[in-house]
Amino acid sequence: MTRIRPFRGLRYDPERVSLDQVLVPPYDVVAPDEREAFYARDPHNAIRLELTRDVADEADTDYAEVAETLTAWQREGVLVREAAPALYGLRQRFTAPDGSEKLREGFFAELQLEDYAKRVVLPHERTMRGPKADRLKLLRATRANLSVIFLLYEDREGAVADALAGSFAGGALASGVDPAGVENTLARVDASDAVRRVCGFLSERSVVIADGHHRYETALGYRDENPGDPAARWTLAYFANAFAPGTLLLPIHRVIVKGTAPQPAAWAERLPGWSCREVPLPGPDAVPGVLAEQLAPRAGEHAFAADDGSGILRIFTRGRSDGELGVRVVHREVIEGVFGLDEAAVRDGAVAFPKDPVRAARDVREGRGAVALYLNPLEPDDVFRTTRAGEVMPQKSTLFAPKLPSGLVFRLLDAPGDA
Questions:
Q1: Cis ω on the peptide bond leading into residue 402 (within 30° of 0)?
Q2: Whole-model pTM?
């Protein structure tokens, strides 16, 4: 089903550039006030291939300057094109939110683009026009995939990891620590048996977009604009096993921005069938520990915790025999049922979506929200079950971690990969 192939990657020359200085977070998580710092960090920082220095310049730019920069860096030898096609394995060592050390393994490949209707590449969220129009301008100008689409596959037995093991043992092409503190190690995967096993495994399975819906749909749009261009039928993608220990699915929490905190009796009245347990909450820094003790063990149920800043955390639980996504239940029965905020209100900013529970707790205590709603993460099975049913999840349902930095490998569209 999923067709992938090796490609001739374009990479920073580690003799000329330190990856520590040039890796940058995905373009859509770089805050406007962070751009200048990345521009100043190194004259070859990958931010220069992704974003304008000033966010106000985006609307009018045609990204011709990025195209010129990309060409100049190749001419100067800062970026070097691989001589032969390969897959590129990636090992990421990082510290999880609970303090444990994790290792995620995956790989980069060219992915053949398929319309969603073919059920090969499965989305889990809806997209907006603005970001796609901006990324399409960049793709037209550069004819290069400068940031990557992050895809998940199902491999409960670890077959792909076994196929990649020899390549990782053969030594690194490059390594560097990205701005999130993740240690990234890139390895060439070009042994014919390993490539055959990896490509064959994916050919029998669908994949789910973890991150990069706008980039994928931009690539589809560019393909449709260029029906006679074979290179436009493929894009750059990173693949990770959703069921491997190092692939983290983290929750994104909710803060009610437009609304008031219900009285205790009102909670009970508006949430019939839910049980509530109250536990002390000394302050924001205590939230992660209390959630680990009180909310995490209830992952098999519909469960959430409500924090109104009063020093009491309310843990709500209900059975989960319906099989429905917990985050969808929270949106329907809590955000809409308790606070009266429908989907239109959520889109208009009535709810904020902090990834950090401590940040959510501080927002409530500092007047930037009425109530924080803390959620448990989804499971990989939730993601695959939902997407295979042709459904999308509520906005900001889950965070796939760690993020993929830009700058590890790029793909030029001027030469197809080797099938």
A1: yes
A2: 0.91
